[in-house]
TrEMBL record:
<feature type="compositionally biased region" description="Polar residues">
    <location>
        <begin position="42"/>
        <end position="53"/>
    </location>
</feature>
<dbReference type="InterPro" id="IPR047340">
    <property type="entry name" value="RUNDC3A_B"/>
</dbReference>
<feature type="region of interest" description="Disordered">
    <location>
        <begin position="29"/>
        <end position="61"/>
    </location>
</feature>
<protein>
    <submittedName>
        <fullName>RUN3B protein</fullName>
    </submittedName>
</protein>
Amino acid sequence: SFCLKGEGLDGSFPAVIDYTPYLKFTQSSDSISSDEEELRTLGSSGSEGSTPENIGPPFITDENSWYNKCKRVEQKYRLALEQKGYLEELVRLRENQLSESVSQNKLLLQRIEDMDLAHKMEKEQLEYIIVELQDQL
């Protein structure tokens, strides 16, 4: 879709595609189960009743799950990093637009003051002309 807004059609503003509606976090069932698994692992590791026999063979199978967890965390980190980079770029763009708007606002305020001064001077001249014309009558 294409939408034109405002009067500034001179092309001085950069074209912006806003992707923020698409940056949503959705928690999959896989991540929920991995979170629950991690909580169980952390909860059982703090128990006093663990014996050395329990550490041997399960540790080898846990190594693969730790590797998978590490990969998932790395993927989440990369996704968050990409989103962070996009949002930082969006913030920079908005800051530039804000500074341009502030400078345009100052220019417009100056023009308003100049027009107000010109209006007052014209009004005084017209009042002076009216007074002269009344004197002539």
